[in-house]
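note to self: the first set is below, dont mix up w the second
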Amino acid sequence: MRWLLATTLLLSACTQPKAQSPDSSAPKAADQASEQDITPPSDDDEPLTWRTLNVGETAVEYATIGEPAEGRPVLLALPPGPQTREMVVAGIEKWATPMQEAGWFVLSPISPEGLFFTDSAELLPGFLDAAAKTHGIPTEGLLLFGMSNGGLSAFSVALAEPNRFRAIVTIPGRPTDDDLGKVSALASMPVAIVVGADDDPFWITGAESTKRALEGAGGSVEVRMLPDTGHAAHVDIDWDTFRGLFGL
């Protein structure tokens, strides 16, 4: 299964976040995973379906899983690394089949420029508005998931529009240093962060700082530290655990 390639992809494609202090900077790595590490997804790669939405003058390509239905979870999944098409597959394919079988509707966009917590940050609210009209999904009460750079992106969009989401899970993830002081805005929703105990300190200390900040604001946050695990902590998360992190 191609999701097994995510371990290599994450280790080779994690980019350094902007606006971090020197002591908390993420490990430097290539902006793109090498071609030999990637098997490009095909358009008939079930259960992912590839679509395009226009957000203003920008075309945003995205994958969906399942079909929307009233009362069923809707998940925005933000991909790791350079947030390309390959990274969308790496970020969600492991749980794609059980997501579909459980009746979830999943949207996972490609960042059209840069990353979703920097260059393309302003596109996500418009993307969700366009997706709501196209797919008939709600604009609020969404589940939010991000992996690695997708985890940074998840906190970015949640802090920009916290009313859209009801739970956040990152594997791993954290706010940027600039956003850490704003996390009290997320105190009304459950937050779960999974991080490998052997990961770079950027992710470990960031998860711990986020926990302290959210708990200080009266929020509910779980930091799950996986022993003997590095950056690709998702490998040890099965479907039941993933779903349970959202409280479902």
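second set (the one i keep forgetting abt)
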Amino acid sequence: MKAFLKFLGGWLLVLFFCIAAIGQDKRNGRPESQPSPKVDAARQPVKETSAVTRYTYEFNQPDFVISHVVIEHDPTGHGQLTFVQRTETPIVEPFELSASAMARILGFWRELRFLDSHDNYQSAKSFPHLGTYKIGLDDGQRRRTAEYNWSDNKAAWALANEYRRAGDQAIWVFDMKLARDMQPLNAPSLLTELESRLTRNDLSDPQQLVPLLTELKTDEHIPLIARNHAGRILKKIEKN
């Protein structure tokens, strides 16, 4: 009997250590059914997107009063204008195309299928004395530029003219702001120039000029004749 009890006690002791060992493994181990932590998407770092598409336009004619113009903008029409006027010092100004002008410009870019094309837009006729245009597009992966001084491609020629009008309008705004601050006697001739462009439909978007013309109409820093002229131009824009 004593031998049996001794034998039974030994087995109980072995069983106790086995149970303890199993419990330790469970505490140290990773339960297979444990759910992974939820990911908060709002806290995750945002992956960098590809470079923003950039559109460029350049005009160059050393003999002109405005000898060099560069427009750079993004797909929303925001960018900068750089031009050389009378002096060799480049002037850099913020630039913004109106929604309607941007729609026309993007339409011409799409019509050209610019990055997929290898067309030469220069016509057989050449008129370098009128200036050279250079258009460019960079979508972050591909880049292309094209240069011409005259083109039989209607979309390429219309695109150059859209940019020319937008650049001329922005430069006019710069000149008028300068006149208001420093040369008020130049305001009448600048407004005559503006009305001439408006009559020829040679402005990018006359509606963009409405806030400035509204200010000029009551600006006592410029001559009365200029204020009255600004009012007449405003009426023409509203009528159109």
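remember for set 2: Residues 176 and 187 are 7 Å apart (CA to CA).
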